[in-house]
Amino acid sequence: MRSLKPLAFVKISKAAPPPPEADNERVVELFNDRAALKKNYAALQQECNELRDRVKQQEGATRRFQEYLETLEGRLTRAETAYPALAFHHLRDLWRFGGEQLQQFSAELQQQQRNRKTKPGVSLPANSDLKARQRAEAALRAAEAVCADALLGLAEAERALAELDKPWHALKRKEAQARVGGRRDALRKAEQALEAARSDCEVSQATPRSAADLPDPGGELSVAAKRAVNLAVIAYAEVLCLKLSKSDLLSQARRAISRREVVDDYGDVASCERLMQMVDRARDALGNRNAMSVQVKSRTDRLRKLARYASQSDCIPLQDSIAVTAGDALGDDALGASASRLPNVLAEDTWGIFGALLR
Q1: How many CA atoms lie within 13 A of 157 on its CB side?
Q2: 262-295 burial by CB neighbour count: b if 16+ within 10 A, else e?
Q3: How high is the mean pLDDT in each 10-residue block of the chain (359 residues)?
Q4: What is the DSSP string of 16-30?
Q5: C or N terminus of the chain, fewer CB within 10 Å?
Q6: Which own/partner contact pairs does 281-290 have at CB distance under 8 Å and 24+ positions apart?
Q7: Whole-Å CA distances, 165 to 155, 179, 240
Q8: What is residue 359's three-state secondary structure?
């Protein structure tokens, strides 16, 4: 009988009560906290590594800038190297000055567009006129989209034709030429439809402005208003280019702004002085906005007729659609400018124009 007592004790010890429910929940919380701590620790480590990389990059940039300053100080100690450095920075400043003029002009136009909504005494047209205006604008946007698609289709067909340049491509080349011809016809019809839609839209715009063209209460401009601002800014950039058409200051300023180091491409001291004087006169000409109002308006009207957009929501026109064509020049003989000397300000980002355009 005594031999059975140990067995009974073992059975009693195995039948110990399970841990309470609160202890299980606490263990689960501890595991969750541990996982969250590990995740936060990994995120902090990654942030520290990124900050170290940024510090290294900033140290490298600071070191390069310090070296540039030391080199510039060395150049300024000698007249034969100081004057080219001054001319170089004059040209860079001219480019920046043109960009500042564009941004200021764009800001003023945006404010004018917003003021039109809050101007007292402006009455909205009747419902019929408003609907007619909306229909005309919808038709114009649809025509612009069709024209853009036709232009892209023609470019694709011409690219496919250019790839068929082998003798054994004779049959395929004929088919590709036929496709190109069809695409050109489609583009011509699309452009005619676009011109008709533009005419209808201009007629509808003769009525008082509707709420569709005004900014919403949050201050955001409509697509039509943004396009109007952008076209005026592009026209202003073209007029700035034409103001410098009698000299090569624009091309020199473009080369200077694209370089980091000073170059000795400006001649001797006398040549550098003449160049700096030309830059000063050019700044005065570019800053005289009152003398450009008529030219800007004429070029804005031209752009309004030519500009095409990739989609109905795009506010910046396609670069090819505003390219300068032969015979296009301002009616100011004093400028002495020809169309061939006027750059495509969008394609070449002249004056850093994309910083002044609305999207």
Answers
A1: 20
A2: beeebeeeeebeebbebbeebbeebeeeeebeeb
A3: 50 53 76 84 87 84 77 75 86 90 89 71 49 73 73 75 77 81 81 76 56 49 88 90 86 87 81 89 84 85 88 88 61 41 83 88
A4: PPPPPHHHHHHHHHH
A5: N
A6: 282/94, 282/243, 282/244, 282/247, 282/249, 283/94, 283/97, 285/243, 285/244, 286/94, 286/97, 286/98, 286/101, 286/240, 286/243, 286/244, 287/97, 287/101, 289/101, 289/105
A7: 17, 16, 43
A8: coil
Per the CB < 8 A criterion, the answer to whether 344 and 303 are in contact is no
Tell me how far apart the 2 most distant CA atoms of the chain are, in Å: 131
Helix, coil or strand: residue 350: helix
* Token digits of residue 179: 């496709």
Both tokens of 60, joined, read 């490298």
Distance (Å, whole) CA 182 – CA 187: 9
The tens digit of pLDDT for each residue in 53-90 reads 888 888 887 887 777 777 777 777 777 788 888 888 88
Q: Token digits for 352?
A: 């850093």
DSSP string, 119-150: -TTPPPPPHHHHHHHHHHHHHHHHHHHHHHHH
Ordered DSSP codes for 150-173: HHHHHHHHHHHHHH--SGGGHHHH
Distance between CA atoms of residues 106 and 112, nearest Å: 10
d(CA 253, CA 97): 11
Q: Per residue in 152-189, is it b (16+ CB within 10 Å) or e — as a string?
A: ebbeebeeebeebeeeeeeeebeebeebbeebeebbee
